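protien #1 (seq + structre)
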Amino acid sequence: MQLLTDEIKSTLPPLYSTENTPVHEKQIVCKFFNPMGAGTWYIAEGSEQEDGDWLFFGYCDLGIPDCAEWGYVSLAELESIKLPFDMGIERDILFSPTPLAGVVNMTMTQFEI
């Protein structure tokens, strides 16, 4: 599966461009997930790097209770994850851009960066 499409590239805000947007209002543009278990990445920003890779910023939930956090992940990192049965990280093809508050069930104190 192609994780990063031209459509996502054209709608993804560049890194650091939404710093002044309240966290619960940050627009999540795409969602990547582990189809075989824990691991979900809600991507809010991204920029192509000099080496051609993409660096994303988003809300990452790796399935550890109370440890989801904002952070960075590269496209190469996501693509390098090898799962059983020759599977890898996938993109939620039914996901539509929406504010973080609409996709993550949490209290406002957990929204802090």
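ok now protien #2
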Amino acid sequence: MHLEILSPENKIFEGEVDSIIFPGSNGKFQILNNHAPLISFLKKGEILYDKNNKTEKLSITGGVVEIIKNKVSALIEVIPSQ
């Protein structure tokens, strides 16, 4: 499936992934290929996505995600680097 992660400042990631775990407002949830359409708010936590048998993570303060026809778009606020 195709994942696009955007912040107000820039595009953080775009590419094909195998699975994604989001910190939803009611708890963590996982997205796999052919997931039903969904829109959800995100809370502070980590986005985990698997790409080529490697897990990448991104800490966020919140956002929103939309899943439609194997395209996942996440609009997020990133925790600033210290």
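The domain at 2-74 is CATH 2.60.15.10 (ATP Synthase; domain 1).
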